[in-house]
Amino acid sequence: MHEKCTLQQSDLPVEVLERFTHELDVYSIDEAFAAVDRRTSADPEAMSVLGRTIRDEVRRLVGVPVCVGIAPTRTLAKLANRAAKKIPVFEGVCVWPATREAWREQLMRRLPVSEVWGIARRLERRLAGYGITSVWDLATADPAQIRRCFSVVVMRTALELRGVACIGPEEDRTGKKDELIVSRSFSEKVSTIEGMRQALSIYAQQAAARLVKHRQVAKSVQAFAGTSHWHEQQHYPAVRVPLPYPTADPVMLTRAAHLLLPQIQEGTRYARAGLLLTDLHAAEAHQALELFRHVHEDASIATLVDAVQKKAGREVLGLGYGGLRPGPAWQMKRGLLTPRATTHWDELMIVRA
């Protein structure tokens, strides 16, 4: 399955989920948290109906199976989702408050602590040193002692296992996600400054599109390139460019990326390049800075380009080198690419009767 199709298909279930909640937090490409209103959360049967409806609607409208876990906290919801996946009797929907207390305890005693959201292998070993080896052990541990011996993050996890909500919509076990990377290995080595300029332009445009999609802006750009590890003449240029203010403007991102070009050695065969955007923030939080924006950014170029590409295709419109069609020779080889029937008319399956 190729990236474009995967990303598009992951957006479809999200659109269905948005019909059932006032607050949706897309955690990953195949995972999301949805808030349940107070009236529904007070009625276990209503929660069961909601879970089954979500499961059935995503299957009907998108064609993919999903499992639903409903619980008072995010950590318990992840645990309930695992039960919905692994235990056939739930048929894909587990409402944690509706299950028997004895059953919940039995499940938590059987599951190793590594099954808890955010407990990695190294932390699992440290917990084992304190006699905490199962989910139940962590849930019943003294929160104050957990904080003293580990961290406030692990303490929150223990409290969440007890049903005390401690983790907000924009938090996870590693902190807020504040990085975005666009990087590819070239199918053909790039050995000219102009070729690298073209690659960086395209990657900057792709990065801007992702920022717009997630309603974010970036304050810092790092551009990098590199030769193959097996190449005799190795070179790994990189530059970090702080932006004057947080932005998703493709023009500014492209200009920042091009500051890598003075380090590019003409004739050196580069195998890879990319952009790393850091210090990301919600776009809405920086509307007060609109008076200081550039003229082209006031015109919302990033949003306009993204809208046109969504309607007419990614290859139809681009900025500078990012708008070249057909694509450059160094782009990823896709000889085994899955047919893109959802985005390309010429790749629809043909049926002859």
UniProtKB/TrEMBL annotation:
Lineage: Bacteria, Bacillati, Actinomycetota, Actinomycetes, Micrococcales
GO MF term set: damaged DNA binding; DNA-directed DNA polymerase activity
Gene Ontology biological process terms from the UniProt entry: DNA repair; error-prone translesion synthesis; SOS response
Transmembrane segments: none
Keywords: DNA damage, DNA repair, SOS mutagenesis, SOS response
Annotated family: Belongs to the DNA polymerase type-Y family.
One GO CC term on file: cytosol
InterPro entries named in the record: DNA/RNA_pol_sf (IPR043502), DNA_pol_Y-fam_little_finger (IPR017961), DNA_polymerase-Y (IPR050116), DUF4113 (IPR025188), Rev_trsase/Diguanyl_cyclase (IPR043128), UmuC (IPR001126)
Role noted for this protein: Poorly processive, error-prone DNA polymerase involved in untargeted mutagenesis. Copies undamaged DNA at stalled replication forks, which arise in vivo from mismatched or misaligned primer ends. These misaligned primers can be extended by PolIV. Exhibits no 3'-5' exonuclease (proofreading) activity. May be involved in translesional synthesis, in conjunction with the beta clamp from PolIII.
PROSITE patterns associated with the record: UMUC
Organism field: Leucobacter chromiisoli
Domain UmuC residue range list: 15-120
Name of this protein: DUF4113 domain-containing protein
